[in-house]
Every structure is written in C-alpha cells, then in structure tokens.
Amino acid sequence: NISAIVGDLYEGKGSSKRDAGFSLFYMGINIGALIAPLITGLLAKTDWHLGFGVAGFGMLLGLIQYRLSSHYLDGYGDFEPPKDEKEAQELKSVGFKAKVIFGFCIGLLVLAFAGVIPIDAPTIAGASGIIIAFVGFGYLAYVALFGGLDETEKKKVVAIGIIFVFAAVFWSGFEQAGSTLNLFAERFTDRSILGWEMPAAFFQSINSIFIIVFAPVFGAMWVWLAKRNLDPRSPIKFAVGLLLLGVGFLVMYFATKIAASGNLAAPTWLIFTYMFHTFGELSLSPVGLSLITKLAPKKFSGQMMGIWFLATSLGNLLAGLIAGGASGGNAEALADMPHQYMIIVATTMGAGVLLLLIAKPMKKLMGDVH
User: Fold this and answer.
1) Average pLDDT over residues 228-251
2) Nearest-CA neighbor of 238 among 355, 106, 370?
3) Distance of alpha carbon 283 from alpha carbon 366, whole angstroms
4) Quick check: 51 pLDDT over 90?
5) Sign of torsion, CA 299 303 309 315?
6) 133: Cβ contacts below 8 Å, ≥ 6 apart
7) Bridge partners for 192 per DSSP
8) Residues 207, 278: contact at Cβ < 8 Å?
9) CA dist., res. 292 & res. 219, Å (int)
C-alpha cells in the first residue's frame, strides 16, 4: 500500500528524514483535498448527483496517473517472500481466511441491498465500534502471540496497540470537520461575501490550504530539530497533536456561544479552529504513518498500516456518533453545543496529557525507534 511504499523510500535514512518525507507526501494528498470541495461544492448546488459523479471521475484520473508512473516505485513496498515452506503454508492459510471473510462481507452487502437484511443505521453504528476495536486488538494479539516475533518485535506491536487508541481519539475529534463543523458553517456562520453566499463546503478546503502551506514547514522543523538532537520522540509529537486539537475545539466553544445567543458567527472562528486542527494533524498523522512503518515487523508492515487506518475508521465512527447527538438544528441542540464542544476539549486534551505521562514507558516498548 502507498503508505508502506513511502516508508520504504526512506529505509535506513533516519527518523527525521522519514517524518519529513511523510509530511511532503501528506501535502501532496491535500492538494487534491483543497481542489475537491471547491469543485464538488459548486456542482452539488446545481445537481447533487453531479457532485458525487465528478468525485468518482477524479478517482479514476488518479488511478490512471498512478498506473502510468508506477515504474518509479518498483521494488518499494513489496511483500516480503516467505523464508521457508512452513511460513509459505501459513501465508496461504491467512490468504484463504481473508478471501472467506471478504466473500462473506460481499454476501451481506448483496442481501442488504436486496432488502433481505433490514438496515438499521444507528444499531449498525453502535455495533461497529465494538467490532472495529475487537478486530484491531484481536489481530495485534494474534501477531504478538503467533506471528513468530522476537521479544523486541512483540513490544513494538504493543506500542502500535497504544498508538491505535490515541489515534482513534484524535480522529474522533478531527473528523468533526465533515459533520458538526460543516453544519455549523452552514447554519450558524455568516458566509456572505459582497452579496454572494459562499457554499459551506468551501470551508472543507481550509484544512488543506493550511497543510499545503505548513507541511513543508513542519517537515523542515523535524529535520532542523534532529540536527541539533532536539527532535521530540513520536509519542510527544502525538501528545502535542491531541493538545492542539483540543485548543481548536476551545475556539469552537466560544463560537457556539455566539451562535447560541442568536447571532451568526464570523467565519474567522472556523478558520482559526481549522488552523489549530491542522497543526495538530501535522504533529500526529504524518508522524503516525512514519512511526508505524518503523515499528511494524517487516513481514507484517502492510497489515500494521492497516491497523493505523482501522484507528482512523474507529475515529470516524465515533465522530459520526458524536455528531448525531450534537448537530440538531433546534434551539435545544444549539443551546447544548457549547457543552458538547467542551466535552471534546476535555477528552482530547486529557488524552494528550495522559500520553505525555506515559511517554517514558512507551520509549521502552519502542526500543530503538524514535
């Protein structure tokens, strides 16, 4: 997968170089994320289906571009071949189980769309969190116990499990961007510019603008600090990311107080929120991608990257559940919004402080990984 490929590009070139490389990789992704809401937001106002259609067309263009330029990546991110016949048989067994599970999921989807299995979204959402957590920690336990790892590698897998938890907490707050924050932009933000009302979707590009501007700055900062032996360890960067996320929601707390008083909030409230969230994201997400590639046992590098994205999945799910209780347009929901955001502030900043406190024990688990 692409994140494992990027990790391989910096094999043996030091922690700071890899962190900086992932920051640049992240910046590239966000060039697309900057353009997309501007195009889809405008088209969706004309035709909702056209907004989705152009997104699919953009994905197709990305696939064509990747296929045409894939020769530049030959040898990077390749699957490590089995060392002996026993390992080959184990891999075949895992592959067969994966196919069975995939086929089962496809069958469920077909039955659901055919109306055979009724779909109750709130029930599914409630159960999904338990399933995602069970799959994530269950697989990590399987790898640690039966993956043929040495003690050092097992400790690193435990570290990945801890990272999983804090990453999920971060994304549960950060992914409010597409739900509660976007609804706040639509319902309670003054979007008038010289008589023209800006689509609320345009606010989704603010995060990407900040990433494009500041990703090189953060990448250069990690390298600069490393040259002076001041580069903080990855758990510290994670903690900073969570604390900055909390600061962003503290800004939103004051914005919702304005909205609750009956006035439209200025767009600068959302802009500052997205700025702090972006700084938090740049402290955590590219660093997390880099960290997983360094901690993961070589033969499980792709799967461990999957665990990282499973944490993102769990965070998105939690963000949706939070948004379901905080995004109502009625007066009661609006009056409760400041309280809801303050809970998020306490949760994210509390997680950041906790991670700072366990940074030393994490160092022992991570071993030689910075």
Assistant:
1) 93
2) 355
3) 18
4) no
5) negative
6) 314
7) 197
8) yes
9) 17
Q: Scanning the structure block, which residue is given the tokens 């997983």? A: 292
- For residues 348 and 170, give the distance between their C-alpha atoms in angstroms, rounded to a whole number: 7
Contact 319/176 with Cβ under 8 angstroms? yes
Place of tokens 């992932």: 22
- Among 79-93, 125-139, 163-177, 185-199, whose mean pLDDT is lowest? 79-93
Alpha helices in the chain (DSSP H): 2-9, 15-46, 48-69, 85-113, 121-146, 151-174, 180-188, 206-227, 234-260, 267-295, 301-326, 331-357, 359-366
Dist. CA 171–CA 173, nearest whole Å:
5
Distance from first CA to last CA of the chain, Å, rounded? 23
- Residues making up the chain, counted from first to last: 370
Tell me the average pLDDT across 181-187: 89
Alpha-carbon separation of residue 266 from 10, 176, 271, 329 (angstroms): 43, 19, 9, 18
- The residue written with tokens 């969190």 in the block is 129
The reported pLDDT for the residue numbered 354 is 97
CA distances from 354 to 23, 33, 360, 364 (A): 25, 32, 12, 17
